[in-house]
């Protein structure tokens, strides 16, 4: 049975949807006029906001990049008086200053509504008990899910991260029915619950996101935690989580088209691609007040799916394969860490935790993958070790078309992650 938080908006299609999008796009264009960056960018491109008369006209507008937001640190992209900003979050970059994002009270309302839609879509409602196992600080996953779940009438446990035993105890003692965390942390939670010999019989739904994860990982988490697992996508620049989410079909993520105008581009040329063509997701948010953006390049690789979803909701994107900037180029071959995860999860003799190291040795890229052995499928014999190692190398070569070095390590010896996993260490010198 389809469940809706806001059926009219969630199933809006065709001309009605386009009318709403165009109206909101024009409103967004009027909002960006108070942002110096946009005044200058549009002027340079010779565009007056009045020139945008159809949704396709958006292609005339230049892209906004993450670096532009960084250059505007801290409040260069805020389009309202600071006194109207109700909350600030930041997203931590790998280098330099974080990206700052702001929300008006209206934004916080719109954001909570998007999350409430997602939670209702996967079947959560009043009576459910939801444990939110992500960072409650500047990371948008904590407060974002928290207020959305409260809006949807769900009981919320703001457990945040850390102390996995305590998390498990609360799930069991409070009769938790749904959890939210990163897929990496969910895997760790499953490991610890198994070590403790604890069952979690009330748990039925897991919502995972904030980093790429494969379908193989989904199967693993569902089997070990006894749940149905849903993919949740978002980024701080577009409020945070809640941008796109899977429904019961779990065949692509519904992107909320009344709030986000979506394009897929070729990341190298900027050319707009059609449905089913893989590229970088570019989004123009349509309801943001404090920090409106035009054609924001997310860096995330996906495609628009063209099939109609039986649930009745509007357009979908495919699960995110990775980021254009996370993609490793090894001896000219493109590799996403999620592909490595997918291969390793198919091999029962190894565990699910891995690390990838990339080096340049004698001018050649070398990729080394460390993966834990799986106690249940490994005799401990040296000959067995070498058999497993060869098997992993072969499976990786078959999928990635790349020779790799594989190092098997003791179960439990690789790092576990509470938030986003950092599994790739690129040690090549960039010249
Ligand atoms: O990660 C927001 C979020 C919180 C999403 C909780 C889902 C759940 P940022 O820290 O700004 O925001 O990081 C955004 O994370 O551009 C993607 O590269 C990646 N990402 C987020 N969700 C997914 C996903 C939050 N489901 C960046 N699959 C994005 C793959 C994801 N990558």
* Mean pLDDT over the residues: 94
- The side-by-side strand order for the widest beta sheet comes to 4-3-5-6-7-8-9-14-13
Helical residues, percent: 25-40%
Rg to the nearest angstrom? 22 Å
Biggest sheet statistics:
9 strands, mixed
Helix-and-strand structural type: alpha/beta
As for the CATH topology of the largest domain, it is: Rossmann fold
What kind of assembly state do the chains in view correspond to?
single chain
| Tally of discrete structural domains | 2
CATH class of the largest domain: Alpha Beta
Find the count of extended strands (DSSP E, 2+ residues).
Answer: 21
What best-fitting shape do the alpha-carbon axes yield?
Answer: globular
Low-confidence stretches: none
**N→C terminal distance:** 56 Å
Q: Report the β-strand fraction as a percent range.
A: 15-25%
CATH architecture of the largest domain: 3-Layer(aba) Sandwich
Give the full name of the CATH homologous superfamily of the largest domain.
Answer: ANL, N-terminal domain
Bound molecules: 5'-O-[hydroxy(phenylacetyl)phosphoryl]adenosine
**How many separate helices?**
11
């Amino acid at each position: 049975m389809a469940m809706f938080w806001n059926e009219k908006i969630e199933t809006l299609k065709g001309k009605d949807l386009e009318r709403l999008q165009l109206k909101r796009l024009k409103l967004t264009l009027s909002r960006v006029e108070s942002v110096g960056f946009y005044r200058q960018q549009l002027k340079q491109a010779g565009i007056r906001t009045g020139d945008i008369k159809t949704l396709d006209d958006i292609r005339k507008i230049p892209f906004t990049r993450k670096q532009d937001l960084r250059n505007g640190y801290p409040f260069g992209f805020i389009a309202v008086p600071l006194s109207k900003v109700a909350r600030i979050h930041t997203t931590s970059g790998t280098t330099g200053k974080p990206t700052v994002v702001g929300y008006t009270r209206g934004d916080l309302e719109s954001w909570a509504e998007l999350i409430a839609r997602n939670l209702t879509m996967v079947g959560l409602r009043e009576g459910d008990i939801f444990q939110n196992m992500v960072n409650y600080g500047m990371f948008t996953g904590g407060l974002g899910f928290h207020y959305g779940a409260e809006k949807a009438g769900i009981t919320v446990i703001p457990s945040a991260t850390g102390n996995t035993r305590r998390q498990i105890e609360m799930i069991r003692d409070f009769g938790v029915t749904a959890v939210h965390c990163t897929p990496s942390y969910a895997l760790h939670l499953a490991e610890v619950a198994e070590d403790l010999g604890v069952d979690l019989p009330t748990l039925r739904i897991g919502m995972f996101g904030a980093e790429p994860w494969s379908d193989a990982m989904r199967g693993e988490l569902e089997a070990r935690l006894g749940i149905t697992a849903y993919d949740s996508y978002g980024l701080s620049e577009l409020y945070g989580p809640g941008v796109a989410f899977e429904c019961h079909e779990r065949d692509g993520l519904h992107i909320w088209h009344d709030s986000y105008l979506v394009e897929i581009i070729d990341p190298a040329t900027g050319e707009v691609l059609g449905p089913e063509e893989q590229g970088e997701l570019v989004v123009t948010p349509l309801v943001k007040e404090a920090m409106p953006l035009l054609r924001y390049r997310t860096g995330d690789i996906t495609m628009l799916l063209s099939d109609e979803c039986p649930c009745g909701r509007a357009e979908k994107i495919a699960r995110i394969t990775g980021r254009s900037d996370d993609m490793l180029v090894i001896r000219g071959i493109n590799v996403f860490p999620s592909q490595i995860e997918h291969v390793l999860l198919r091999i029962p003799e190894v565990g699910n935790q891995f690390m990838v190291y990339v080096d340049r040795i004698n001018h050649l890229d070398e990729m080394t993958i460390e993966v834990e052995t799986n106690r249940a499928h490994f005799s401990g014999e040296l000959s067995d070790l070498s058999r497993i190692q060869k098997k992993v190398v072969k499976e990786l070569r078959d999928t990635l078309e790349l020779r790799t070095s594989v190092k098997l390590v003791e179960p439990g010896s690789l790092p576990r992650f509470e938030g986003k996993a950092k599994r790739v260490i690129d040690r090549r010198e960039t010249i």
